[in-house]
Structure formats: structure tokens, C-alpha cells
Amino acid sequence: MGKGSLIIYITIALAVLLLVSRAPRKSSSHHRHRRLKLRSNFTFAPPTLPHHQQQHSAAAHHEPVPFDPLVADLERRREDREWEKQYIEHTHPELAHHEPAPGEESQPEWEEYMNAEDYLNDEEKFNVTNRLLVLFPKVDVDPVDGFVTLDELTEWNLKQTQTEVLHRTKREMELHDKNHDGLVSFAEYDPPSWARNTDNGSFGYEMGWWKEEHFNASDADGDGLLNITEFNDFLHPADSKNSKLLQWLCKEEVSIRIEGRFENNLE
Ligand SMILES: *[C@@H]1O[C@H](CO)[C@@H](O)[C@H](O)[C@H]1NC(C)=O
Ligand SMILES: *[C@@H]1O[C@H](CO)[C@@H](O)[C@H](O)[C@H]1NC(C)=O
Ligand SMILES: *[C@@H]1O[C@H](CO)[C@@H](O)[C@H](O)[C@H]1NC(C)=O
Ligand SMILES: *[C@@H]1O[C@H](CO)[C@@H](O)[C@H](O)[C@H]1NC(C)=O
Ligand SMILES: *[C@@H]1O[C@H](CO)[C@@H](O)[C@H](O)[C@H]1NC(C)=O
């Protein structure tokens, strides 16, 4: 057999392989053209971004939020596990690498995930029509008239997002609340290493993100401790209703802008 025919054989084999691997996918997508999917690419963003950087990335992402709280709950549980795994890899890489069988470890998790997706796509268990019938009255509230308006839908999505954000804040809080009293003191709230180890002149302190002032502004009742609401405001000052914090944020944004101008002028 010559070299030429071997190449032809391989080419044909590859082509057949390609057709075979594509065919079932195509037909299955015809059958179940709307298989519901759980989002699966959560990426670990350390909670250490300075606030305006965080706002920029949030604006760039426009992270979608599930419409159905049931789906949101499934995704949250999945995200929590992913988060835990990545957190350990981040903070204790030695643990993550010494785990005996990572393949075995991840198997039940993956199965559970697939089960959750199967659950969503099993019409007997997760009946989309039924879910809409259940959820509709919860969205149609202002006024209750059998129609969902843009405002009602916006309000609903906002509520889902707030639930999502608060959930992440709770997760974050567990990390910092060292004495587990449900409150975070400034001492408990370690600034991240990059802010701690740098000189005072460098950007960590200048950002104001780790300033005690920011902490104090978030502390609505001024008791020196942040409860979950206040801690959520601390992490997401722009979404806060706390006037003290909003004032601090304005001041901070203005000074950053002035500094930016000043630097631009120097260049
Ligand atoms: C996964 O992440 C990419 C890029 O970050 C994004 O474009 C995509 O929509 C995400 N997929 C899902 C299912 O969320
Ligand atoms: C889903 O719910 C709708 C409305 O309640 C019902 O008519 C339909 O038969 C249900 N489908 C299944 C597969 O149970
Ligand atoms: C930075 O300044 C603060 C007080 O303004 C001080 O407590 C802290 O130790 C200083 N940090 C460094 C790394 O110099
Ligand atoms: C946290 O404290 C603030 C300010 O005192 C208060 O308005 C809020 O209701 C508290 N949150 C919780 C969950 O207790
Ligand atoms: C923050 O508040 C505490 C009292 O709760 C006070 O001792 C501290 O000086 C305040 N820090 C700043 C920077 O305002």
C-alpha cells in the first residue's frame, strides 16, 4: 500500500468519523429542540476586585439570571459546589493537588448535575407550562390584571438578581465571619494580601476599597459590625440604599475621577 492510499484511507476514516459524530447530535436537536440547560461555566472571581473594577466587569458581563426560582436554586447549588472547589484550589492548592482520586471525586457531582438537567427536561417532573401557570400570578402583581407588563417583569428579574447576590454575599460572609456570630467586624475582614502587603502609596489603599471608611459607611447602625444586609451593601455599594454608603461611594468616585484627570494631564 502506497503512502498516497494510506492518506486517502485516513482522510475517509476521519470524514466518516466526523459524519457519525455529527449526525446524532443533529437529529437529537431536531427531536428535543428546546432542551433546557443549566448554566455551567461559573468562573471564580476572587472577591478582591476594587469596586469600580467590579462594576466594569459586571457591566461587561450582563450575567443572565434564571427566570424560575426553581432553576435558580439548582444553579445556585451547582455554583456553590464549584465555588467551594475553586476556593480550595485558590487558597489551599496543596489540598487540591493531594486529593487521591479527582476523577472519582467529581463523578457523583457530574451525575447530580446531569440529573438536575434531566429533571428540568422531564415534562412530568418539570412541566414548563405548569411552571408558567404557577409563576405568572407572582409576576403579575402591579396591578393584578392578567397581563405582565415590562415593569412587572423588570421588578421580577431584579428580585431574582437580588436573591442571587445576597446568596453570594452569605457565602462570602461565612469566609470572613471568623467567630460565626453572623456579623463581620473590621478586624475580621482581612483585606486581601495584595492590599495588605503593598506600600501605602500603591493602588490598594488608594482605591479606598479596603478603607475603614468604607466599612464604617456600610455600617448603617454604627455598631462597628456588619450584619448580612450591611455586608451585602459593603460588597455592592452601588446597589445599596444606605445613604451614608452612597455618599461615600460618590466621594470615592469623584476623587478617583479627579485623580484620573490629573494623571491624564500629566501625561
Ligand atoms: C459561558 O461563558 C461565556 C464567556 O464567558 C459566555 O459567552 C457564555 O454565554 C457562557 N455560557 C453559559 C451557558 O452561561
Ligand atoms: C403540563 O401541564 C399542563 C397544564 O397543567 C398539562 O395540560 C399537561 O398535560 C402537562 N404535561 C405533562 C407532560 O404532564
Ligand atoms: C498604611 O497606613 C496605615 C495607617 O494610615 C497603617 O496602619 C498601615 O500599617 C500602613 N501600612 C503599610 C504597609 O505601611
Ligand atoms: C442589619 O442592620 C441594619 C441596620 O441596623 C438593619 O436595617 C437590617 O434590617 C439588619 N439586617 C438584618 C438581616 O437583620
Ligand atoms: C470607624 O468607626 C469606628 C467606631 O465604630 C471608629 O473607631 C473608627 O475610627 C472609624 N474609622 C474611620 C476611618 O472613620
TrEMBL record:
Domain EF-hand: 212-241
GO annotations of cellular component type: endoplasmic reticulum
Keyword terms of this UniProt record: Calcium, Membrane, Transmembrane, Transmembrane helix
Gene Ontology MF, one: calcium ion binding
PROSITE patterns registered for this protein in UniProt: EF_HAND_1, EF_HAND_2
SUPFAM superfamilies (alphabetical): EF-hand
InterPro entries per the UniProt record, alphabetical: EF-hand-dom_pair (IPR011992), EF_Hand_1_Ca_BS (IPR018247), EF_hand_dom (IPR002048)
Annotated transmembrane regions: 6-24
Record region (Disordered): 43-65, 90-109
Basic and acidic residues bias locations: 90-101
Domain of life: Eukaryota
PANTHER family in the cross-refs: CALCIUM-BINDING EF HAND FAMILY PROTEIN (PTHR10827:SF101), RETICULOCALBIN (PTHR10827)
Protein name: EF-hand domain-containing protein
Source organism: Cannabis sativa
Lineage: Eukaryota, Viridiplantae, Streptophyta, Embryophyta, Tracheophyta
